[in-house]
């Protein structure tokens, strides 16, 4: 098969190295010597024989040289090499003749070469030897192919290939039969698809595809190790498939959220509980209220102690800004020893206020009555916030901000995946699998 596919490309080599092979295989591909170039070579052979018989200056040789000059002109004009896609060979011949004769034109070079004066001056034997060794093989390699009634090149390789196709077909049917016997639930089409790659062995065209079933069979026979290629192909497919699925799912979820916000579904769900569908509660509690209470406790017990110095500094700055504007404080700053007193008083006052406020807040949360007041405060705050948020101008502005934020998330989400997010995930999975196999 590969020999047939590559035959025309390698025919020049076969013609020089194994001429008997070309004589045997040319008829199968419909290859024949081109009449124009074949006639040209025959005229050169006749010239050689005539020179031996009557000498270079005889009238018979003169007539044959004139005939060769006319044929050379026709070959350059008609380019019989184009049929076999060998125009490069004609270019090579013209270049060799220009260098040999010193002419700038290929036509003038061939006319000069087949001139008796040139051949006598340069030496008949050396010139005809150059022709036979350098030029004649290029012309001999030219050919044309017969055309069938459908306008296609004649190719009888199918006659050689037909017995093998029949053998492949019998093998394919027998394996299909065995598969259907082992798996009665499969019909014949499904059994055939179990060995779909063998179908390439039956195709009368695109025969190069037979490399796939041959490769698979060598792999199944453990004569060829394709595991590294298989693993890489699976990995590339998984990465590409996972990336597309991840992008589509993520974008779809974000777009659903944007549509829900734009339609007002989210606002109705938050602010109109009676419009919700039957909602399943877990642990019989409102997670939103629990989360709110938890956030309040975390803010008071964990966050406020960390930012207490900043709150003290802010209170101190506020008191100083207002206190230094009073006339009494400005007069005290003019007495020696008393100018630093206001600053110390303000510093101590700010620290005491901060500690007192924080202790009061903690006590209020721990005290049952304070807890009720705090709960009522949070409830009233939530209700007031809901009332304000349900106003049309506030709701529209917040919805647009949320939609824009989700659009930015969507763009950055796709960007992060395109920049190798899936690749990193796949690498982590592979590392975990290697660790698992190691243990």
What does this structure look like?
It is a single chain. The relative contact order is 0.05. This protein folds into 3 domains: 2-145, no CATH class; 157-224, no CATH class; 269-276 and 287-429, no CATH class. It has a two-stranded antiparallel ribbon with strand order 1-2. The radius of gyration is 48 Å and the shape is elongated. Helix 3 runs antiparallel to helix 8. The two termini are 49 Å apart. It contains 18 helices and 2 strands. The protein is an all-alpha fold and 439 residues long.
Give a brief rundown of this model.
The protein is mostly helical. Helices cover 76% and strands 1% of the residues. It has three domains: 2-145, no CATH class; 157-224, no CATH class; 269-276 and 287-429, no CATH class.
